[in-house]
Design a protein that fits this description.
This protein is about 40% helix and about 15% strand. With about 425 residues, the chain is of the alpha/beta class. The protein folds into two domains: about 210 residues, P-loop containing nucleotide triphosphate hydrolases (Rossmann fold, 3-Layer(aba) Sandwich); about 170 residues, Rossmann fold (3-Layer(aba) Sandwich), CATH 3.40.50. The protein has a seven-stranded parallel sheet, sandwiched between helices. Bound molecules: adenosine monophosphate. Adenosine monophosphate binds next to helix 3.
Length: about 425
């Protein structure tokens, strides 16, 4: 399958070639023809699958075929959960559309920055708006934009939009859109609330699910390393140094932890920075830019701050704190191993979190052998019932030896294979 056979126009093919894409990803193969013919789409796809191009390319092609009415109208609306994702999608669209004969006016709007420049930019309307829901509603209230002519609505990362509490805003926005429109819904997971939303918004959608099949975990080498919680920073340093990780995204649970871990790494001489939601937009943009340019080696982030980060070839992701849910696990490790590039995802498992990690494994139908790093073997596990007790083959009352653990790991792996 090639991009040409997807019936994309020459200017778009040129931009695709310039981006270096040679073959369309599965979500692109499935979505592009459906979007081009105006159908609604229900897509289960995560970041890294190439979903942005899957909706942006056909959307640009359709918009290039007709003109915008004069006034403060918008023709296509892309709603996203975070400002970083909004900025990335806006950037991608500009690149995909740069060779079109008539420019497609694309604006990115999000909160946390002054509204005035966004109001100014909206003068004369726009072809595409990429927006976070709250700021879009502010702009509607200021009469800076009218949604009455939106022909296509895209909900990207719909699960995140709902998880972040945007349900009410979404309902208000949808009420402002024409009933006759095209709707595309992309989500990594489909919890009941997203199913309901999809059922409400989509009409006879073309369904596509590419998450599990294409995001083959084979591209992402996953590790579960047992370590006592207080020694995680030291272990992280050790791994960064011995495995020569040049760029690492480290996930922690709280804003405080981002600062704390980044600070400790900096004091150890590493170029590390924290990324969390309470930094100013300017600071976030700067940190991301430094990381992208490899001026920073380690980025310590919360889930929210790292959501949707599009960093080409991010080789290593570390779950310093485990994610809360199985879906978050998928999102996090999706930061690496993108578009066919190999990646490494490392989980730190402590005595307190091993049961939680087992749950994540069960939900996501995988199972990793537990590893220990020399010099960082945990002590605290001894106080807990052995995590894999039934199959360790260890002597009763004795802590499982390394060999026991290895056997247990193999058994776990084997059962994981039958599960998966
Ligand atoms: P996305 O899932 O949209 O966040 O895209 C993930 C990454 O894959 C981005 O860096 C895209 O530039 C890249 N990408 C998208 N489509 C392709 C393709 N057909 N071939 C290679 N890379 C792609």
């Amino acid at each position: 399958m090639s991009f040409t056979s997807l019936k994309l126009s020459v200017p778009l093919l040129r931009a695709i070639a310039e981006k270096g894409y040679t073959v369309p990803t599965p979500i692109q193969v499935a979505a592009i023809p459906a979007v081009l013919r105006g159908a609604d789409v229900w897509a289960s796809a995560q970041t890294g699958s190439g979903k942005t191009a899957a909706f942006a390319l056909p959307l640009l092609q359709r918009l290039a075929l007709s003109r915008r009415e004069p006034g403060r109208f918008v023709r296509a609306l892309i709603l996203v959960p975070t400002r970083e994702l909004a900025a990335q999608i806006g950037e991608s669209i500009r690149r995909y559309g740069r060779f079109l004969p008539e420019p497609i006016k694309t604006l990115v709007v999000y909160g946390g920055v002054s509204i005035n420049p966004q109001m100014m930019a909206l003068g004369g309307g726009a072809d595409i708006i990429v927006a976070t829901p709250g700021r879009l509603l502010d702009l509607v209230e200021h009469h800076a934009v009218s949604l009455a002519a939106v022909a296509t609505l895209v909900l990207d990362e719909a699960d995140r939009l709902l998880a972040l509490g945007f349900a009410a805003e979404l309902a208000r926005i949808v009420a402002l859109l024409p009933a006759a429109r095209q709707t595309l819904l992309f989500s990594a997971t489909f919890p009941p609330a997203v199913e309901t939303l999809a059922q409400e918004l989509l009409r006879e959608p073309v369904r596509m699910a590419v998450t599990d099949q294409t995001e083959s975990p084979a591209d992402i080498e996953q590790h579960a390393i047992e370590v006592d919680a207080p020694r995680r920073t030291q272990l992280l340093r050790h791994l960064i140094e011995t495995r020569v990780w040049t760029r690492v995204l480290v996930f922690v649970a709280t804003k405080y932890a981002t600062e704390h871990v980044a600070d400790k790494l900096r004091r150890a001489g590493l170029k590390a920075a924290a990324l969390h939601g309470e930094l100013s937009q300017g600071a976030r943009t700067q940190t991301l830019a430094d990381f992208k340019r490899s001026e920073l080696q380690v980025l310590v982030a919360t889930d929210l701050a790292a959501r949707g980060l599009d960093i080409a070839s991010l080789p290593v992701v570390v779950n310093f704190d485990l994610p809360r849910s199985a879906a978050d696990y998928t999102h996090r490790i999706g930061r690496t191993g993108r578009a066919g590039e190999p990646g490494v995802a490392v989980n730190f498992i402590s005595a307190e979190t091993h049961a939680h990690f087992q749950l994540i494994e069960k939900r996501n139908k995988f199972s990793l052998p537990r590893e220990r790093i020399e010099g960082f073997e945990p002590d605290e596990f001894g106080l807990q019932p052995a995590p894999l007790a039934p199959s360790t083959g260890g002597i009763k009352g004795r802590r499982p030896s390394k060999k026991d653990r290895y056997r247990a790991a193999l058994a776990a792996q084997a059962s994981g294979e039958t599960l998966g």
